[in-house]
From TrEMBL:
Residues 267-390 form the Fructose-1-6-bisphosphatase class 1 C-terminal domain. It comes from the Eukaryota. It catalyses: beta-D-fructose 1,6-bisphosphate + H2O = beta-D-fructose 6-phosphate + phosphate. The keyword Transmembrane helix does not apply. One of its GO terms (cellular component) is cytosol. The lineage of its organism: Eukaryota, Viridiplantae, Streptophyta, Embryophyta, Tracheophyta. One of its GO terms (molecular function) is fructose 1,6-bisphosphate 1-phosphatase activity. It is an enzyme of class 3 (hydrolase). This is fructose-bisphosphatase.
Length: 403
């Protein structure tokens, strides 16, 4: 068997499974060697005469990947001006997300689902969904990491009725949906975590603790200094913006590092995919039905037929839309402005896209309640513009859906 003298493998790939083919094919007895940080990716296979290994990105591109960068290295060395406090905070956030990724993938997480009786029903006037055990554990993991960072004054979570004041003098406010899409875990459907980060409003420091915690958490999305989501799927991907582009980092299971794999993501100006629950078609307003009917027949401004792709996991649907273009949407008052709509709108805008409630820019909406809900449309700028032109796209009548 004639083997190539150069083996390319998807970046980064240094796990035992990645090298299994090589070892079997050439009958080598070797252990994989973790690639050193900030150096050309190699493995022990490259040490054999006449044999080399180089890493490549999906699609075969090697440009920019001869040196791979971790999330913390990227923040510390790219000159994007985030400051040491935010670098330290994101180091603790990534640690929390690694723990959640492990929890979601664990064969023992089903036992948590059997503890549902420990969770009381939540909802009604608070606007919150009833939490699941995995949501609660994820929430505790994030809260613990934010406490340990020493950099967060307030955490507001979709799982809590009110914000938690963590430490006086912490420079940041963090809003989070700890485990979006958790009802899908038993079916191994992707889930995610969403973060938004604001500066603490120092002008409120004189107020009582509960009041200043609430007001700090209700800042307009235009004041976000960073936002991120983490996708727990076939890969664990952390996608973040710090106000200077949108960048994605993939968790290297062999080293435990989030590695920059998608620098400066740019959403296509227009896609060919829409993501929405078509089963609710007859509950939609006339404008939304006309828009969907038009684009899937290829009769819209873009003369190609659109396809439907719907996972029913916001982070997963949004991640695909960010990479491929199109629109991810929920037309009814369902998604949270503070925890979901604002952070994801900041991310998509930094990638060249748009976030809308069907009429106006999401980031321009001033939150008035912690668990405030609204329709959400995220995606390519030309697709969002066309959708908004149909005007009546917000579903105001909500008959309620049993799942």
């Amino acid at each position: 068997m004639q083997l190539p003298t150069t083996l390319e493998y998807p970046f980064p790939s240094t796990s035992p499974k990645s090298l299994l083919f090589i070892r079997k094919a050439q009958n080598f007895r070797t252990q994989p060697n973790f690639p050193p940080r900030n150096r050309f990716c190699t493995s022990k296979m490259a040490s054999f005469p006449g044999f080399s290994v180089r890493c490549r990105a999906a699609g075969g591109a090697t440009e920019g990947l001869s040196e791979y960068r971790t999330l913390v290295e990227f923040l510390g060395k790219e000159g994007i001006g985030v400051g040491d406090d935010l670098v330290l905070l994101f180091d603790h956030i990534q640690y929390a997300c690694k723990r959640i990724a492990s929890l979601v993938a664990s064969p023992f997480n089903s036992s948590l689902g059997k503890q549902a009786s420990l969770v009381g029903g939540v909802g009604g006037e608070s606007g919150r969904d009833a939490p699941k055990p995995l949501d609660i554990v994820s929430n505790e993991i994030i809260l613990s990491s934010l406490r340990n960072s020493g950099k967060v004054a307030v955490m507001a979570s979709e799982e809590d009725d009110a914000p938690v004041w963590i430490v006086d003098g912490g420079p940041f406010v963090v809003v989070t949906d700890p485990l979006d899409g958790s009802r899908n875990i038993d079916a191994s459907i992707p889930t995610g975590t969403i973060f938004g980060i604001y500066n603490r409003l120092v002008e409120l420091d004189h107020l009582p603790k509960d009041e200043k915690a609430q007001l700090n958490s209700l800042q307009s999305g235009t004041r976000l200094v960073a936002s991120a989501y983490v996708l727990y799927s076939s890969a664990t991907i952390l996608c973040a913006t710090f106000g200077s582009g949108t960048h994605a980092f993939t968790l290297d299971q062999s080293t435990g590092d989030f590695i920059l794999t998608h620098p400066n993501i740019k959403i296509p100006p227009r896609g060919q995919i829409y993501s929405v629950n078509d089963a609710r078609y007859f509950d939609w307003p006339d404008g939304l039905r006309r828009y969907i009917d038009t684009v899937r027949q290829g009769k819209g401004r873009y003369p190609k037929k659109y396809s439907a792709r719907y996972i029913c996991s916001l982070v997963a649907d949004f991640h695909r839309t960010l990479l491929y273009g199109g629109v991810a949407m929920n037309p009814r008052d369902h998604l949270r402005l503070v925890y979901e709509a604002n952070p994801l709108s900041f991310l998509v805008e930094q990638a060249g896209g748009r976030g809308s409630d069907g009429k106006s820019r999401i980031l321009s909406i001033q939150p008035v309640k912690l668990h405030q809900r609204l329709p959400l449309f995220l995606g390519s700028p030309e697709d969002i513009e066309e959708l908004e032109s149909y005007e009546n796209v917000q579903q105001k009548v909500n008959p309620g859906y049993e799942v």
